[in-house]
Design goal:
Helix 7 packs across helix 8 and helix 13 runs antiparallel to helix 14. By secondary structure, the protein is mostly helical. About 1% of the residues have low confidence. The chain has 19 helices and no strands.
């Protein structure tokens, strides 16, 4: 029974919490109710047997535990007694209707945690804590922050949701595109921190990347919009290269030097199928186009066989959708691969002159590489030194240092 309880906690606790938040209207009260419900299960199930519908049992038990808790506290605060009566009057769906209702609850929870009135740091922390079930310490480790800082962010975010009466609901159809974009941005930020950690000793934080992919799957299951499918495809295609991206010692391996036999072909097949389906809808956006670029890389049997003309065309579409300096930088790298380093360098120099990428180490690293390929050793050295001054991830620092040392050779 102990193993069964652990398995149910892993698979059901986030679903149960999402419904309890809807029924009780308060994150903290719902979390307390969740823990009380599982504590009751530990006491009762070994003697009474596993309920026919464990999830429904946990929701019902958690709700009653919360109502009892409020009634006890009402001795000191009369308003809590009224709240307990309100909760007791709320109808709970029968178990047979639970799956669809609970799916809706999980989607409501995602949109609540990613509400635009919350700061992006709070959205990230709250989503990882409440939707993914990471502990405060795990969230803090993910973003190299102090647990106390992350805890404060979560507490303030919950207080703002409560005070501002942020609705616990999926947005109306007219609001959905803009709100979904915010949710996808949070998921992508989590993935990026896992796929290429911004600081620290590791190239990849697989735990974070896996959580982001799990969130992406949840969104596609609950809201199968093309951009959600495109983001999931993008994450799967990038993550498929995880085992080939670093040496056993933790050193970075460039795309052109990776052993493609280590790429996860199951993830590539799934990602390519998703992006094909999303693009076929005719409603795909920037995530779908990025996924299509990743698919071209994934399907190339070798780096030399990469279809740079197709990638360049896709970047042209992406620039039209999202003309950010980083997208234009990535297009410049593709242009250099297609038309030669001088063509790409001219674009990168213009971007750096604009000032928006002045503190972005990858822009200087890309410039250094193109200068190196053109034989402009002094310019390459200066650009590598600038990139080294800005980089915060140790494997990238070691990689850039090696490239700089190679110039002298």
């Amino acid at each position: 029974m102990h193993d069964t309880l652990e398995q149910i906690y892993r698979t059901e606790s986030r679903r149960v919490l999402a419904t309890l938040i809807r029924l009780l209207g308060d994150f903290d009260l719902a979390e307390e109710a969740l823990h009380d419900a599982f504590a009751a299960a530990v006491q009762q199930w070994p003697h009474e047997g596993l309920p026919a519908n464990p999830r429904a049992w946990l929701i019902s038990t958690g709700r009653f535990k919360a109502i009892d808790q409020l009634r006890r506290r009402a001795r000191h605060d009369a308003s809590l007694g009224e709240l307990a009566r309100e909760f007791a009057a709320v109808a709970v769906p029968p178990p047979e209707a639970g799956d669809e209702t609970i799916a809706d609850d999980r989607l409501r929870l995602v949109f609540t945690c990613c509400h635009p009135s919350l700061a992006i740091e709070a959205q990230l922390a709250l989503t990882l804590r409440e939707v993914c079930g990471l502990t405060t310490e795990e969230v803090a480790r993910a973003f190299l922050a102090r647990p106390a800082t992350v805890a404060q962010r979560i507490v303030r975010a919950k207080a703002k949701i409560r005070a501002a009466k942020i609705p616990y609901e999926v947005p109306q159809p007219a609001e959905l595109p803009s709100r979904l974009e915010a949710v996808l941005q949070v998921v992508y930020l989590v993935f990026n921190e896992g796929y290429s950690a911004s600081t620290g000793e590791a190239v990849v934080r697989h735990d974070l990347a896996a959580e982001a992919i799990r969130l992406g799957r949840l969104l596609c299951d609950l809201l199968p919009e093309p951009e959600a499918q495109g983001l999931l495809a993008l994450m799967l295609l990038h993550d498929s290269r995880r085992r080939a991206r670093a040496t056993p010692a933790g050193d970075l391996i460039r795309l052109e030097d990776q052993d493609r036999a280590l790429w996860d072909r199951d993830q590539i097949r799934e990602g390519c199928a998703l992006v094909t389906r999303a693009l076929a809808s005719g409603r795909g956006g920037a995530y779908c186009v990025q996924a299509a670029i990743a698919a071209v890389h994934a399907e190339a049997p070798a780096f030399a066989a990469t279809d740079w003309l197709q990638i360049l065309g896709l970047y042209d579409v992406l620039v039209a959708l999202n003309p950010s300096p980083i997208v234009q930088l990535n297009r410049a790298v593709a242009l250099a691969m297609r038309e030669g380093p001088a063509a790409g360098l001219a674009v990168i120099d213009d971007l750096l002159a604009g000032g928006e990428l002045a503190d972005y180490h990858l822009a200087h690293a890309a410039r250094a590489d193109l200068c190196r390929r053109l034989g402009r050793t002094d310019d390459a050295r200066a650009a590598y030194l600038k990139a080294l001054d800005l980089v915060r991830q140790e494997p990238e620092r070691r990689f850039l240092s090696r490239r700089l040392a190679e110039l002298a050779e």
